[in-house]
Amino acid sequence: MFQSLSDRLSGVLDKLTRRGALTESDVVEAMREVRRALLEADVALDVVKDFTEKVKAKAVGAEVLRSVTPGQMVVKIVNDELVAMLGSDAQPIDLHAAPPVGILMVGLQGSGKTTTTAKIAYRLTNRDRKKVLMASLDTRRPAAQEQLRVLGEQTSVATLPIVAGQTPLQIARRAEDAAKLGGFDVIIYDTAGRVTVDEELMDEVRDVKAAIHPHETLLVADSLTGQDAVNTAKAFDGRIGVTGIVLTRADGDGRGGAALSMRAVTGKPIKLIGVGEKWDALEDFHPGRIASRILGMGDVVSLVEKAAQTIDVEKATKIAEKMKKGSFDLEDLSEQLKQMQKLGGMGGVLGMLPGVAKIKGQINEAGLDKSLVHQRAIISSMTPKERRNPKILDAKRKRRIAAGSGTKPEDINKLIKMHRQMADMMKTMGRNGGMLNKFLGRT
Ligand code: GDP
């Protein structure tokens, strides 16, 4: 699903994350490529413009978190805007109404309306344990009512018995009566489709809708038709009002233009997507998950989210200042170790970095995590004076600290050595401003 779009976008973003520092023109260039990719995917022009402008404005003004790179930050911004464009929260079918709850299915011929009717009925029956009745109001296509009856048999869902010669309105009323008598929870009405949007079709659907007051009116549109699907949805919504959209054939759609434009252009949520011909090939539309599928950058996004949740910006700034001055003490080291632990230990930190996942097996994570815990225990067994000035740590003090932290004096020596190396490295970087900024992921 949406594979070609996904390949393009993840290619652009992957390039960004592999850089330590970014300039504004890097971001502008990346957005140009994102824009091209979205247009090729048949996303509506206004939607593309709006999207890239928002990302650019946010990326340029963003405060980059210290534990991530600017590129990773931009990926997060692109992801968040994509989620917003797709509609933010999932909006499943709403059944909160007095039974029988009516769902009216509308759309063009061949969009997958009848198949989707059966898929929804199948899911409500088997997953949600609802008693569902399907009724075909399609009196135009001779075989339409029979087609739904057969689908009902195949999915073991009840269908309204066929009575020849009735109008759509008469069938709808009969379905309502039958559902009330039979104690059904839900009625799904499948309506007639046309090859294109025309007045007669719209009038017919509007009359039915006015008579039955469905709780949901779902427009079924074919994902493969891109902007045509969006225009169809707009036309139906303008004429009869829809509550949501079902996008079918997403399984065969490499571009995703309809999915990406639908919400922004019509203002209506995509509630479900069809992902195959089988009865269970129907999924709730989760903007977050879809964005993650399209960008293929879920790991980077969760890294930035975790960093934003756990890294205390003020503390990090203070530590960075101390690094610059070369006065990074053991208190600061302990704080850094704490942040690493919050990020899920070494395994968590390493696993979230792109590329590292591959070599993760070769790194002894358990050992690293254990030493994180030990190192923090050692530091917390020291007096504040010792933490500020490790030079005063003589053999006697080391023995006391080892006993207090359940470690050995050698462990304390190792920690002091590590701290000294880090402090030296930071001092060198502090003298060389450019390198420090690079280390902090700043331009
Ligand atoms: P209607 O005229 O709108 O009622 O369309 P149908 O329900 O008869 O569907 C037309 C064709 O599209 C059928 O062959 C369905 O199997 C197929 N179809 C419907 N939804 C999907 C989907 O999500 N994925 C795929 N691959 N095929 C679908």
TrEMBL record:
For the SRP54-type proteins GTP-binding domain, which residue ranges apply? 269-282
EC numbers for this chain:
3.6.5.4
Positions binding GTP in this chain are 107-114, 190-194, 248-251
Q: What is the enzyme's class at the highest EC level? A: hydrolase
Question: According to Swiss-Prot or TrEMBL, what is its membrane topology?
Answer: Peripheral membrane protein
Keywords (alphabetical) are:
Cytoplasm, GTP-binding, Hydrolase, Nucleotide-binding, Ribonucleoprotein, RNA-binding, Signal recognition particle
Main subcellular localization, coarse class?
A: membrane
**Top-level taxon of the source organism:** Bacteria
An example Gene Ontology CC term for this record? signal recognition particle
> Keyword Transport on this protein?
no
Subcellular localization(s) per the UniProt record = Cell inner membrane; Cytoplasm
One GO molecular-function entry: GTP binding
User: Catalytic activity annotated for this protein?
Assistant: GTP + H2O = GDP + phosphate + H(+)
Which GO terms of type biological process are on file?
Answer: SRP-dependent cotranslational protein targeting to membrane
Q: What is known of its domains?
A: Composed of three domains: the N-terminal N domain, which is responsible for interactions with the ribosome, the central G domain, which binds GTP, and the C-terminal M domain, which binds the RNA and the signal sequence of the RNC.
Protein family per UniProt: Belongs to the GTP-binding SRP family. SRP54 subfamily.
The annotated subunit structure for this chain is: Part of the signal recognition particle protein translocation system, which is composed of SRP and FtsY. SRP is a ribonucleoprotein composed of Ffh and a 4.5S RNA molecule.
Q: What does this protein do?
A: Involved in targeting and insertion of nascent membrane proteins into the cytoplasmic membrane. Binds to the hydrophobic signal sequence of the ribosome-nascent chain (RNC) as it emerges from the ribosomes. The SRP-RNC complex is then targeted to the cytoplasmic membrane where it interacts with the SRP receptor FtsY. Interaction with FtsY leads to the transfer of the RNC complex to the Sec translocase for insertion into the membrane, the hydrolysis of GTP by both Ffh and FtsY, and the dissociation of the SRP-FtsY complex into the individual components.
* Record-given protein name: Signal recognition particle protein
**Gene source species:** Hyphomicrobium denitrificans (strain ATCC 51888 / DSM 1869 / NCIMB 11706 / TK 0415)
Q: Which residues of the full protein are shown?
A: 1 to 443 of 526
